[in-house]
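Re: weekly structure request thread

Next one in the queue (524 aa):
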Amino acid sequence: MAIRVACIGGGPGGLFFSSLLKQRVPDAEVVLFERNQASDAFGFGVVFSDATLRRIDEADPVLRNGLRDFGTHWDRIEVWLKGERLQFGGNGMAAIHRKTVLRLLQERAAEVGVDMRFGHVIPSIEDLRDYDLIVGADGANSLTREQLGEALGHTAETATAKFIWFGTTHLFKGLTFLHRRSEHGNFAAHAYPISDELSTFIVETDQQTWQKAGLDEFDVSQPPGPSDAKTQRYLEKLFAEDIEGQPLVSNNSRWANFRTRQTATWHKGNVVLLGDAVHTAHFSVGSGTKMAMEDAVVLAREVAEHPGNLELALTNYQAERQPEVRKIQNSARPSLSWWEHFGRYYAAFEPWQFAFHFFSRSIDIEKIRQRDPDLVNAVENEWHSLHGAAPLETSLLGGPVAFGGRLLRLRNDGGMPVLLNGSQQLALTVSPSEATGTTGLLVTAPDTEDGLDAVFEKLSEDVPFVVVTGGTPFTRSLVSEEARLSRGLTSIIVDDGGTASATTLILSGRADAIAVSDVEASNA
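Done, posted below.
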């Protein structure tokens, strides 16, 4: 007896899964239900890096062919800031209009025999009880996931930054990050071409700036469809020079806060989730479309190989995809955080350091060098012209303490932490009131961002310098940046990641100096 499969959601993930399964199991009955019409497409472009397309291309060449025939391709990322344009090469990427991707995937699904029912709402998964397998591919606000209940262990973390998605008729040459400051605060845009007529234009800002500019007046409770005309006019004026006076294009464009979604269990009974319904990663690093299509590849393969044992198929699917998604989310979190704090970096850094801070938010200097050695040389030359020495060899003044270089050692001396500065031993204390003279403050970063406020309360302008330990590399950087950029303190991060990591932290402005454990230093 042929397997009967219902897929709820006609986005790229649902369409790709349906067509792949039908190709693998031709006698399967595969029915796709989509609440919108076939011609509806919210949003603008989708981006894929050259390195991420292999699995999708091997499963079906429809996307590869679409990118070749209708997409755009580039190698460089650019940051535009304070009249300067800085480039990072070696980042092969391609983009295509979302509506084009949907059309191509719909054509492919129709070609292989998927029964697509557009304008069809499924109010309850109970209505599909006659199907052997139900696939929830109905997006981040998935009703399928909600109906499965709390047993899935689903969580959503809401970012503080506000973002809104537009297009523009100005054609950018590649992925471009624009930064503008108005009388209300800082705004930044991600822009990239998606056809020979249109570019995507995503704008972010912090909540305070958003409110000061009066952009919170649009009624976000309105149903899908209306776009924020006031914001559109404001941003067209603010970014007029960057888009050469061209208009912004709206499509259900409204402000939102990105939500990172994680799910402990991806299936329950004969119902399974894929794509944004089960996970999300910030769009500055992780492509939701790419991840959904990779989910589709694995899920279709497992169901085709184990049609008589769906529990095994769904367990295998989750076991393979969940760790891969977690890696992307772990990479996306520092990038999301960067967009939550970019206003602070705009004020603190010169364009070269601002750009390097941005480019190094997920990778270190040596990985950047492999892609674009000219960029790294330029950044190193900028540092040397300012300081007259390489980053780790540059002297530093931390309050009354003079450091001969920026690579220090940390050790426990009879249970007391001591910072070694050449032949000098500097005591550390965990009490802010005792961090005076040459005694620095040892601050332990939390494992997650939840405990950062308590740490920040300890940072006082009276301490000579701060040594940040514990936590994760990400949370240590956040504590260090708060200390040096917001409190004006000299900040030293404990980091045993090696020379590349230490150099990256200093060149990017995340830390003033690096301390390695005495054991690590002696083995270096």
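The CA atoms of residues 35 and 119 lie 4 Å apart. The chain has two domains: 4-333, 383-523.
Next request, please.
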